[in-house]
Amino acid sequence: MLMCLGVAIGSLVGFLPGIGGPSTLALMLPFVMTMKDPLLVIALLVGMDAVGNTASAFTSILISVPGSTGSQATILDGHPMAKNGEGARALSASFVASLLGGLFGALVLFASLPVLRPLVLSFSSPEFFILTLWGVSMVGILSGNAPIKGLLGGILGVFISTVGLDAKSGVERFAFNISYLWEGIDLVLVALGIFAIPEVIDLAGRKGTIAKAEEFGRGYVQGIIDVFRHWWLLIRTSIIGVWVGFLPGLGSSVADWFAYAHAVQTEKNRENFGKGDVRGVIASEGSNNAKEGGDYIPTLAFGIPGGTSSALVLTAFIAVGIKPGPDMLTSQLNLTFAVIWTLVIANIIATAICMIFAKPIAKICFMPFYAIVPPVVAFVFIGAFAANFHTYDLTGLMIFSSLGFFMRRYGWPRAPLVLGMVLGDKMELYLWLSYTRYGFEWLMRPMVIVLIVLLIASIAYPILTSRKRNAEASLAEA
Amino acid sequence: MGRAKEQIFFTGFIGLVMVAALFVAKDWPIRASIIIILLGSIGVILALLQLRLDLRAARAEDTKILRPTFEVQAIEHQGRWGSLEIWAWLWGLFFAIHLIGFPIALPLFVFLYVKLYGGSWLTAVLLTAITWGFLYGVYDNLLSVPWPKPWIRLPS
Fold first, then answer.
1. Average pLDDT of chain B, as a whole number
2. N or C: which end of chain B has fewer CB within 10 A?
3. Domain residue spans in chain A?
4. B47, B71, B139: residue with CB nearest A411
5. pTM across the whole model
6. Mean pLDDT estimate for chain A
7. Alpha-carbon distance B128 to B67, whole Å?
8. In terms of Cα–Cα distance, which of A266, A286, A287 is closest to A226?
9. Are residues B92 and B53 in the same domain?
């Protein structure tokens, strides 16, 4: 019963933009800490945490508002599909991909606990720094024919993440003596402003419906078939999801972007990515649910949470007497299996709920603009205000909406900015730790060299192939 | 002014942000400025490169926007007022929330928007009721969101 309650809350939170899984988990903490039975805590919290990204695809695909930070990349292809009248196809593909990704994550969690420990322990701050740098530059380069704009967006995102009081040095950074800014700028504000409002402006400006096509018809069953047709992509992106979740501190909202980047870089016929390619949805949604399984590997085995949500779950675990660490593989093995089974069952329940309601909700696509714009704007404003419960949240929303509008107007990719903001804190910390511990010698560490080579290759390869394609096209025109 | 020329100003603005960040961060201790200085320096170089590309595009009178592969198409002007109409609504809602508060401003915004753009009474009332229901049911009662006090308050 508690697991069903957790799944219901997790799905609702996933569907409501701006609230977010971590804040709901935080709200639940005082309640679950009074529970005596650890299994009940696992059922409620893990059930809630496991499915937030499944339901969030509704809003990402239908109205281009990410229900959670883990479904931002889904917008890039999911929303264009909805615009083309394939909302149902995108939704069914996303739910099945979410289910299979979630099951894959649970399977990996089951299989890998005794195996992966040496690997994660071999990584230190220099490797983590290069890894975060790689993440931002990969998405920056994803801007295709605008790599410089993409990289600049990523840097801007890192700068935004530094706003506030720096706890270590006590310096007030870019806060302009405004106490509201001391805590930093909330990612929710940036995500809503950068992604949601420009879409609303577009829809309101067109004065039509979200979907261009008049017939809804095709796609629901096709979406399910699509997932199985692209099974190899799903497995690869699920592995990325598990890996991102597994790396402490890197998890949360990065997996979908990495998986999307991977799909675009490796798939054939990629010219449709960003215009409504179902593979973009599969990659993003498969990875963000698989991430949850990976997230619990360091959380359970080492007591190191992979992300914000698992950090909150860990807090609750400790409060009710669960001791993450080697005990979870020996004396408390039953609790580890409880986590795995909760991940499995919660994903199945959430997918069943979403599949049943997908068609009626997908009909939102065919409502006229005046029935879509006001509720979306209302959601965005409430979601922004829920970030800190401060009226300055709304000012921040308007500022980032303007930035998002101009970025979109002038063809600047917005995704790198958000990723830069997500990874900014970690990037700064890892850079500082590397510098203070090793000076500049950290650049000579073997794993760092390997990662730097991979970083340079991932920047250079798309640029060179793009130039080659352009040269070939010019030659063909001539 | 063509889109290509407008773009130069936006790139210039981003470049200025990078320079300003570097300028402000230069007085901070290294712990607080290391990431700004490292990435800001790269950012200034990239902004200059992008400016060069923009200037070249403007000079060639090539107004075609370089669109990123993964982004939806750049926003085009719509009708006489373009995007100004919806911006006016957004700023109107922003000020209305400050003036009369969330619980009144949001349902009022929904109702007025639907009615003024030709929606039926049923649609307007239904959407207003749904918005109101979410506002009170989920955010007010369930999550106990502390709404900000409006500037104008109704006498109780």
1. 83
2. C
3. 2-184+210-366+413-477
4. B71
5. 0.71
6. 78
7. 38
8. A286
9. no
